[in-house]
Structure formats: C-alpha cells, structure tokens
Amino acid sequence: MKKLNICIDIDGTITNPFFWLDKAAEYFNKSIKYEEFKEYEFYKVLNIDKNEYEEFYDKYKFKYHSEEILREWAKNIINDLYLTNNVYFVTAREKSLEMTTLLYLNKHNIRFDTLFVLGTHNKLKKAKELNCDVFLEDNLENANNLAKAGYKVLLMDTPYNRKATNSNITRIYDWLDANYEINKMIAKAEKVNFVNENAV
User: Fold this and answer.
1) Is residue 154 domain-shared with residue 91, that is, in the same domain?
2) Domain range holding 11?
3) How many Å apart are CA 99 and CA 155, to the nearest integer?
4) pLDDT (tens digit per residue) in 1-26
5) Are residues 42 and 113 part of one domain?
6) Are 8 and 178 in contact (CB under 8 A)?
C-alpha cells in the first residue's frame, strides 16, 4: 500500500525557475539579476507589456518547455518517492502543453502515477480529488491558497515567494530538503498507524 499522496508542481519546482527568465531577458534585450526576480510574472520583472510577453511565450512555449533544466536531485528523489508513495504532477500549464509535458517527463525518465495539466492556477479542487497529503509548489499564491485550505505545502524557495507566512507552509531550498521533510511525514504517519494497530 502506498504511503502518501504527493502532488508536485512542475515549473520552478522540479525545473530551474530562471530558465524562462534567462530566455525572455535575452529575447527582449534586458538585463536582470536573479535576486531582483521578486514577481512571479516575468513581464513584471522585465518591465514589459503583458501582451508582448504572451507573444514571446506563445512563440516559444513548446520549444522551451521541452528544454527546461531540471533542479538538482529532483529526478532521483521523485523516482525514489514513487516506489512507496503516489506521485501526481499537477501543473497550471495550458492544456495544449499536455503532450509536451508528458514527453518531457518521459525523456528524463521521471516516474509518476498521473499528470494533470489544469490550464489554471487553481489547484485546490485537484488537491481535494487526490486526497493530497503534501503539495510541492513554488507559486506563492498557490501555496497560500492550498495552505489556507489545510494542505501541507513544501514551498521551493525562490526570490519571488519569500512572503509566505502560513503555518502549513514549510520553505525548502532544494530537493534534498524536500526528501527530508516528506520522509519525516512518512515516519510520523507510520508511527501513528503502529500505535493505532497495537491499541488495545
């Protein structure tokens, strides 16, 4: 029997959050330091019109989503977690990117149970459907919404999400941190189950 239902965002959580910023900065001939990346929306960071950014995104989304760089340790740890837990990828990407996303995960030999391409940042409904035990996320608004609804959130640290305050949110700095926190949850759940099974 699998132990936890683990929901994982993709962009910025398993992938390098600066990959798209670098590509957009080059395209628009902008110079930006990573520590200045304090807004989730790239067009705000680059101080360009939203429509201009959307034109850039539409032009390159299939190419760049196929080339994104994985965060260090993400693949190995997710694959280890998959052996004893349910692993669900839950992304806000557009529906048109579903096949691109699936091919990307398969290309990198990342193991998982199901991929959900929502086309929206509202992930609460899916978290409820999946009976989510822990959600790994980088988007601060998503993290806050999930945490307020009672879900445990592991927030992958980036310059644009450092205002998190909810007690259900634990900030992590890499996938080694993620693995540590998830294994703490597993150990706690196993202890509770052991006590319940042996209660007289």
Assistant:
1) yes
2) 5-16+71-197
3) 26
4) 779 999 999 999 999 999 988 999 99
5) no
6) no
